[in-house]
Specification:
Blueprint (H helix, E strand, L loop, with lengths): L4 E5 L23 H12 L3 E6 L4 H12 L4 E6 L21 H6 L9 E5 L2 E2 L2 H11 L8 E9 L10 E8 L5 E13 L2 E4 L8 E3 L4 E9 L2 H20 L8 H10 L3 E8 L4 E2 L6 H13 L11
Parallel strand pairs: 1-2, 1-4, 2-3, 6-12
Antiparallel strand pairs: 4-11, 5-13, 6-11, 7-8, 7-11, 8-9, 9-10
Length: 307
C-alpha cells in the first residue's frame, strides 16, 4: 500500500477576505493556519504534501510557507489555472472565477498516484481529524467499490459570527456512511441555530441542530482522479451554457454522483473539534485567540518547526 499524500487546496485568493488569506500570520511566531494543519498531518504520519496554488502566487507561497516546510515534509506544487480545461472547450470571456474544488483536485492528476487526503488551506481542522483520516487511508483500499472517507463536523462548530459560509450538509445512514451531501453556499448563524438561503435572502431554510457538515476534508484513493477527469467535460457541456461566469465543479457533487451510481462508499469520521477559519477579516482575532489557547493548553509548542 502506498504512503498517503496530503493535498492542500490553496488556489483561492479569498474574495470575501481580500488578499491572499492563506499566508496571513495568526500568531506572534508568524505561523499561518496551514502551519498547524501540516504540523498535525506530519504528527499523524503524512510524509508528502501537494499544494494546489495559482501560478501567479507561487513566489509568495513558497516564501510564506513552502520553503520552510520542505525541511520537514516532501513538498510539491500543482497549479489550478482557468485555462486548464479539456480540448474543445474555451474559457468564457470575462470569467475570473476558478472552476471549483473538483477542478482543483483534478490538477493533481500527474503527481498523485496514492491514497490522499484533501483539505482547504484556510481551515483549521484539529489534530484528531488528521489522525483519523491517516489511519483510514492506511487501512482501506478499493475493492468492489471505491472506498472513500470524509471527516465531518458538527454544523454549530463551523460557523462564523461575521457573515455567511458555504458547507456541504451531509446525510448519513446508521452505520455512518454518507448517503448524500447538499452544497449550501450561503449559511448564516442564527440565535437558535443556522439557516441557509438559495435566493439571496428572500427565503430561509433552517438546518437541524447537530447536523454533520463537510469542511472539504476528504480521503480518497487515486481512483477519484480518473472520475474527476472523465466527468469534467460533461460538467462543462451542461453548465457553460447556463452559467458561464460562475458555474463550479464541486468535489462533493462528483462524490454524490458516485454514491448515486453505487460506485463508491464514503465513511464519515466524526470530529467534535471546533473548526477555525478566516473567511472574513473579522474572523482573524477569533482564530488568533483560539490558537493562543491551544498553545497554552499544551497542544502545540510556541514554535512548530524547531530545527
Amino acid at each position: 500500500m502506498k504512503e498517503p499524500v496530503l493535498v492542500v487546496m490553496a488556489a483561492g485568493m479569498g474574495s470575501r477576505y481580500g488578499g491572499l488569506k492563506q499566508i496571513d500570520p495568526i500568531d506572534e511566531q508568524g505561523h499561518i493556519i496551514m502551519d498547524f494543519s501540516i504540523y498535525d498531518a506530519v504528527k499523524a504520519g503524512f510524509k508528502k504534501v501537494v499544494f494546489i496554488i495559482k501560478r501567479a502566487n507561487e513566489k509568495d507561497f513558497r516564501e510564506a510557507i513552502g520553503d520552510r516546510l520542505s525541511r520537514h515534509i516532501q513538498v510539491e506544487y500543482v497549479f489550478q489555472e482557468l485555462e486548464n480545461i479539456p480540448e474543445g472547450f474555451s474559457v468564457p470571456e470575462g470569467r475570473v472565477k476558478p472552476w471549483g474544488t473538483g477542478h482543483a483536485v483534478l490538477s493533481c492528476m500527474d503527481v498523485v498516484d496514492a491514497p490522499f487526503a484533501v483539505i482547504n488551506a484556510d481551515d483549521y481542522y484539529g489534530a484528531h481529524a488528521f489522525r483519523m483520516i491517516y489511519d483510514y487511508l492506511t487501512t482501506h483500499e478499493d475493492n468492489d467499490k471505491y472506498r472513500y472517507t470524509m471527516v465531518g463536523y458538527v454544523l454549530e462548530n463551523t460557523l462564523t459570527e461575521n457573515g455567511h459560509v458555504a458547507r456541504g450538509v451531509c446525510e448519513t445512514d446508521e452505520n455512518h456512511y454518507l448517503v448524500g451531501i447538499h452544497e449550501r453556499t450561503h449559511i448564516e448563524k442564527r440565535p437558535d441555530g443556522a439557516a441557509y438561503t438559495e435566493d439571496e435572502g428572500r427565503t430561509w431554510t433552517e438546518i437541524p441542530k447537530g447536523s454533520t457538515v463537510s469542511m472539504n476534508m476528504w480521503g480518497f484513493t487515486a481512483s477519484i482522479l480518473k472520475e474527476l477527469g472523465d466527468r469534467f467535460p460533461l460538467f462543462l457541456e451542461k453548465n457553460l451554457q447556463s452559467n458561464p461566469m460562475k458555474c463550479e465543479y464541486f468535489l462533493p457533487s462528483v462524490v454524490g454522483e458516485l454514491l448515486a451510481e453505487d460506485k463508491a462508499t464514503v465513511e464519515v469520521l466524526k470530529s467534535m473539534d471546533k473548526w477555525y477559519g478566516v473567511t472574513y477579516k473579522e474572523d482573524k482575532p477569533v482564530v488568533v485567540a483560539a490558537i493562543r489557547t491551544l498553545k497554552e493548553s499544551g497542544l502545540y509548542p510556541e514554535k512548530l518547526w524547531e530545527e
